[in-house]
Amino acid sequence: MSSRLDQVFERCRNESRAALIGYLTAGDPNIQTSEKLMLSLADQVDIIEIGMPFSDPMADGPVIQAASERALEAGTHISDVFKIAEKVRKKHPTIGIILMGYANVPYTIGFETFAKKAEQAGVDGVLLVDIPAEESGICADVLKAHNLCQIMLLAPTSTEERIRLAAEVGQGFIYYVSLAGITGAEMGEVGKIKDKLSLIRQYSKLPVCVGFGVKNSKQASDISIFADGVVVGSHFVNQITANIGDEEAMIKDLFESAHVLASAMKKKSYGGNYGVGA
C-alpha cells in the first residue's frame, strides 16, 4: 500500500536523516490544551503518534499511564481523538499521523466505525499494542479498506518466525521496541538494537523505527545512525508532567525539547535503509 507514510520516509531518506516520531496522549492534560500541544509537537516531528487514552495501558510506564489517567479524568472520548487528529492534519498536510493504543478502544465502537472515522480525520496508520502479528487478521481487512496501515511491534524477544510474520502483515513501518519492558524504562544497548534491526531487515523492506526508552538527544542521535526513525514518547509527555497548571510552559518546553532532538538527529550521517533489496 502506497501511503503518506511512504512519502514521509522517502523525504527523510532524501534529506539523509532518520524520521523523528513523537508521541503524546490525546486529551492530556485536557482536551483544549492537548490540541495545542499536539500542534506544537507536529511542528517539529515527521510523524506524530496520538495516543488513545485507555484505563489499563499495560505496555506503558508510569509517565504515560498518568497521561492516560489525566486524559480520562478530563472526559476524553475517542471522538476527541479523531478531532485532534483532524486538526493536526489540516495544519500539517504532509505529516504522518498514527493512532496508537489498545484493541479495546476500536473494538468497543466497532473496527469498521473506528477505521472510517480515522480515515476521515486524515490518519495514516494504526498501532494496536495488544494485537500481535498472529492476530492481525481481526482488523486487517477493515483497516486496509480505509487506507490505514497496520503497524506491527517487534521486540528483543521476537523470534525469527514472528519477525517473518510481522514483515508479511505489517504496513507503513515496523516499530521496534528497544527493550523487554514498558515505555519510559532505560533504552536497550545500542549495539544489540543495531544487530536486531539487521535481522529484521533480512525479512522486511519496511522502514524500521526504534522506540521505548529514548530520552535524550544523544540516544536519539545514536539510534538515528542506523534506524529509519526514532520514536520519543515519555520524554515529551514529561514536559506536560513538569508543568501541570502552566499551559504556556508546557507548550514552550515541549516545542524546545522536540527541536533539540530533531536538531541532534540531523548532525550525524544517517545509515538507515529500507531493508531487503534497498
What does this structure look like?
Helices cover 46% and strands 14% of the residues. It has 278 residues and is an alpha/beta fold. The chain has one domain (4-265): Aldolase class I (TIM Barrel), CATH 3.20.20.70. The protein has a 9-stranded parallel sheet with strand order 5-4-3-2-1-9-8-7-6. α2 (31-42) runs parallel beside α4 (78-91) and α10 packs parallel to α12 (247-265). It is globular. The mean pLDDT is 91.
Q: Let me know the largest β-sheet.
A: 9 strands, parallel
Total number of helical segments? 12
Q: Low-confidence parts, pLDDT < 50 over ≥5 residues?
A: none
As a percent range, the share of strand residues is: 5-15%
- The CATH topology, please? TIM Barrel
CATH architecture: Alpha-Beta Barrel
Distance between the termini: 17 Å
- Secondary-structure element order, N to C: HEHEHHEHHEHEEHEHEHEHH
What spatial form do the alpha-carbon principal axes imply? globular
Arrangement of strands in the largest sheet: 5-4-3-2-1-9-8-7-6
Number of strands: 9
Radius of gyration: 17 Å
Give the number of domains.
1
Question: Would you kindly provide a brief summary of this structure?
Answer:
By secondary structure, this protein is α/β, with parallel strands linked by helices. It contains twelve helices and nine strands.
Keywords, separated by commas or semicolons:
alpha/beta, nine-stranded parallel sheet, 278 residues, TIM Barrel
